[in-house]
Amino acid sequence: xxxxxxxxxxxETDSVVVxxxxxxxxxxxxKADEAGHMLTYVMDDADRIYGLGETVRxxxxxxxxxxxxxxxxxxxxxxxxxxxxxxxxxxxxxxxEVFGLYVDTxxxxxxxxxxxxxxxxxxxxxxxxxxxxxxxxxxxxxVVRQFRGIIGKSYVPPKWGFGLGxxxxxxxxxxxxxxxxxxxxxxxIPLDSIYLDIDYMDGYKDFTVSDxxxxxxxxxxxxxxxxxxxxxxxxxxxxxxxxGYDVYEEGVAGGHFVKKEDGSLLTAAVWPGRVHFPxxxxxxxxxxxxxxxxxxxxxxxxxxxNDMNEPAIFYTEDHLSEVFEKIDGYKGRNLDxxxxxxxxxxxxxxxxxxxxxRLFYHEKDGLKVRHDKVHNLYGFNMTRAAGEAFxxxxxxxxxxMFSRSSYIGMHRYGGVWTGDNASWWSHLLLxxxxxxxxxxxxxxYSGADTGGFGADVTRDLMIRWISxxxxxxLFRNHAAMGTRRQELYALGDSGAFKxxxxxxxxxxxxxxNEYLRAVRDDDVIFAPLAFxxxxxxxxxxxxxxxxxxxxxxxxxxxxxxxxxxxxxxPEGMKMVRFRSMEDYDEEELPGGDHYLRAELGEVLTFIRxxxxxxxxxxxxxxxxxxxxxxxxLSYGGSGDYEFIE
Length: 645
Ligand code: GLC
What we know:
With about 650 residues, the chain is of the alpha+beta class.
């Protein structure tokens, strides 16, 4: 049962697609303060909180506070409160009740999940205007399903989007890209896509391709496609200011860029230097920008990733000139503790400065709205522009699409990756813990930069990370320029990677089917154990194992030098210790605590009673997978697995 409460005069976000008649009275379970901008719920010690999408920390969100304020921040430390997304949906599970709350507001909102006071959950709205959806349910899963039922079906990627993608910021020309494909093929490691980061563009201009780097882009796209490899270019939110550049000129002529209070265009800077930002909140701007993808679709491109769409701002012209003026005053001064910190603050405050987000305006439903009031909708609407364009331009084809920034509603148009993580063991665990929350908010096509984006990876970290990522729908190895090479042929003997990626391809029929089932049933693929074993207190506390689809549980290893790990089985299961699709051992284990060996390259998978895990013989490309090779690993039951396709 879902009840809708209107607080103030909220703006339409288009995240909810079902009409619900608003209820009178107060939101159940919560107490509102007098001003009406803070809702509180009193928790018992054992209460747990799930959801909130892309955030730091554990699966159970209790004990920290999270601020929905899409932020370009590559330092995903556990003291952060905001990452790139705003997913304002949570599920509260207590001994006496289970309910969900979705706070639909395009501005900032804070979820204090027992941070200020361990027994108080509070939701603090920066603005007074929001729609709150209160969801009563029989179980956490039921609450999630009801919620997903009102936000529309999740995006479905093309099947090849389940194959491995290789990415790196710095593949500067077609020879480098070709080399990546060659070396994967030589190593016998399956691969379906190679990502083109900003280096493919001409001067970092959206919808352009550097002639020098790719003399005949279409031909190159075809060449790669004839080998079964898709190229997936990046698109950034900022449009370079350059006379003669069609996107810039059309954008100015069509009034598509965001403006300041006085009506002049906002000039900010990102990769190309000075840019204007399209006003994606306007329907005609979305249409205009969306149509631009056509130039790349026409070249044979079938997938994109949208980036820097919080939007990230290196600086704005206005703020930068103020900083330069102030810097003059520091010249020649003896900077003492205060002087030095002021000076440092001045410089550190240049990128993504909150003041800059108050400098410009959108036109939303005919109204002029200051950016910070609708900040969290920007990335959503950039990706919506693309998704709506794909529906117009190629309605019969699935186009791969995922975005860095997102708001609930964007899950209908694409997936997300979790941004600029690092090659740290703690970020492997974070990847594991982020998946259920993302799924609850509808983002089924999601995953992290496998191996870590920033910092230098090690071979063992990559092996362990891949051993987990083989289960995530988005399976992409991506790294930052300047870091150690992390292509799977560049980390010593590639045999282990061949086996692990092969195992991924063997699992694709299962993973893709569970994906389609989750879309159909408004379900999650990655569930906390608590969703399936709500009465098992021990299971409810597990933070490093996940249910993946209906048939299996996984227990990834995320500690360096570990040769095994403790695993809790909420019931008897059949363990399959995979080394590859052909090489595995099976063991029936009783419920309870176990210490299980898991050497590097061994993947611990547990089949639930009465369930089956279908596997196929791996192929080098998803499209080459031969379903006739399918067999089922089962633990009791009929031994069959039901496909919904
Ligand atoms: C951003 C993206 C990252 C990309 C880089 C260069 O940091 O998050 O994935 O590689 O920009 O485009």
